[in-house]
Each structure stands twice: as structure tokens, then as C-alpha cells.
Amino acid sequence: MPVLRDLRLLLRFGNFRRLLAVRLLSQCADGVYQVALAAYVVFSPEKQTSAAAIASAMAVLLLPYSLVGPFAGVLLDRWRRRQVFLYGNLLRALLASATAVLMIAPVPDWLFYVSALCVTAVNRFVLAGLSAALPRVVDAERLVMANSLSPTAGTLAATAGGGLAFVVRLAVADSDAAVVLLGAALYLCGALAALRMTRDLLGPDSASASVQPRFTAALAGTARDLAAGVRHLAEPRRRGAAMALGAMTLMRFCYGALLVMLLMLCRYALTSATGDGLALLGLALGVSGAGFFAAAVVTPGAVGRLGPGRWIVVCAGAAAVLEPALGLPFATVPLLAAAFVLGLTTQGAKIATDTIVQSSVDDGFRGRIFSVYDVLFNVSFVGAAGVAALMLPPDGRSAALVITVSLIYGVIAVIMARFAHTSGSHQRHRLI
To answer: pTM score, two decimals?
Structure first.
């Protein structure tokens, strides 16, 4: 397989192997920690979980990515990246251990959430640093390959970490604190793996770091750059990219709302015990992940035949029809099928959106646009959790939420279809 061949080629670079080891351990720990946090909030026997609590947990997990992410590079261009991996993972190991203590101690919930928030905030620096360090460990010819394979491997590691967390909690110890301590141990391993690289290997160069603007000026400059990216996206000739980003933001909103409903259903309506509910949630997330994989297989050919805009129409239209048909019975098997459809349509639309943005936006603005994309992606998810918290009953059965989400999907499909038709007509007139 070409992917395995490319990976074997990259693994010949010793420093790439060391950096990849840091990524795999760090992101595996992320998967363990996030599943443990979700299990504690949703499936603890002593807790009467509410949709509001789930929304709070999602805000803790995702808002740091949105708020800290665009500004992480300001500090990463000043700090030794190897030291970011070392001390960042050590700090996360310490904070995760504190989270485990807070899970078993009689403390206010807000203190637990502050601890979790700190762990996920540090995570953004580590992930950004891993991407920034790649050009230091591979040559220019293989950089694109490394940028493709390394994050993919990290995502698989996070998924494996989540699966490991499910196994540990269900089979080894029915304790969320024990699972969090496993995550802390993996963070510690990530810190130790960073020690295999020299302090200055990953940059930044001393000369470039010394000429960086003052910290406050750099933060203000980052904010101006993001604003310039938004203005670039608002230009008429980039309307297609703006429309695709808007459609993807709304589809992410729908995904978040339905995920909160699924969590509540697994906790209360579809199972009789919290252990059974956690197992069902793991199965549903696995099925949704299979939908994500199917999207990666199907989308390139579909985009080649239909174009990325029309493929978004197909994804949104399919979700509009199939999600209520499968979701409204509120039964296990149809909901698992709905999870697959949701994974396929959401990821298919995201791949198409990425393609539109990459091809429509000038190279000098691409990084800033994707930072804006990242913020929209996560904020819409958290916002969806908040809306779901207002609409969902205690057991999670809400026909109103399913129908509302279906209508949003339908609106996306109609608007994108009209835009694709108008754009195609304009292109034909120009050719004539």
C-alpha cells in the first residue's frame, strides 16, 4: 500500500521517529483522558447526568482549542519546542493526576472542570508545536508526506487511546479516576520520549526568536491577521469558500446536538445500567468512526464526479432524510445506523469543504482562514451542546431536536444546491 510505503520511508529519519513517538504517546493520552472525562460526567452511577453537564464538559474539551489555538504560535516562536513537549506533557501528567483526585474527593464540580480545562488548554500548544517541528526532522521533499501521515497517525493514536479507556473502565476497574491516571502515565511517557531529542533540535532558531516582536504586539498582530483573513474570505470571488464554511459550521452544529442526544439516550433511555450505557456509547462512536472512514474512501470519487459543492448538497440532503427516519424510533439498531450516516455525511462534507477552501483561498491567507475554520468548527459544536441542553428532556428522547436538526440539514442542502446551480450557470455564460 502506498501509505505504508511512505511511512516506512519517513521512519528512516531518526528524529522523525522520535517526534512521532511524542505525538503518538501524547495523543493516545488525550484519547484516554477525554473518554475518562466523558464517562465521569455522563456515566458515573452516583451522578444524575443532565444535558447541561454534558454541554459543560464539551465546552471544557473544545473551547481551549478555539480560544487559545490561533495565538499558540506567538509563544511557540519564542519557546524551544522540545521543551514545550517536555514540560507540557509533565504539566498535563500532574494536572491529570489532580483531576483523578478531584473525581474521588468531595469537591465542587467547578474545581474539577478547571482542572480539565487546564489539561486541554496545554494540549493545544503541544499539537501546534508538533506541526511546527516537522520541517526540522524531515527534508523538504518529504514534508508534504509527513504533514499528511503524522497527524493521521496521531488521530489513530487518540482513537486507540479512547478504545483503551473504554476497555480499562469496563473490564479492569469501574473507576474513572483509574482511567485518568492511565492517561497521566501516558503523558509522562510522552515527556520522557521528548528527552530523546536534543534541546535545540526542533527550533526555533535563536536568531529568529531574538527578533520576534514584543509579546503584546505579537498578540495584537495575530488578531489583525485573523481579521484580514475574514475580510479575504468575504471578497465576492471567494463566495464559494465562505458558503462551504458556513455549511460546514451548521453541519458541525447538527453533529454536536445529535451527539449530546446520543449520550443522554445511552445513559438513560436505551440501557438499564451505566456499564451497559458506556458500552453502547463506545459501539455508537465506533460505528460513527466507520462512517468517517467510509467518507474518506467515497468522497474523492464523489467529488471528482459531482464537484465538492454538489457533494456537500448530497451529504446534507442524505442527512436531512435519513437522520429523522433512523432517529425518531429511538431504538438501538436504527440509532447505530444513524451514527454511521452522521459520520459519513459530516466527514464527507468536511473533506469537500477543505478542498473548496484550499483551492479558493490565496496561499498567503490559507493558514489564517483555517484558523478561523478551526474556531468556527469548535464553537459551533459547543453551541450545539448548549442548545441541546435546553431542548432535551431528562431521558434524551426529543423528537423536536431530531426534526430541528433535519430541517437545518435541509436548509443547507437547498442553499448549497442553489449556489452550485448559480455558479455553474455563471461559468457556462463566461465560456459562451
So the answer is: 0.74
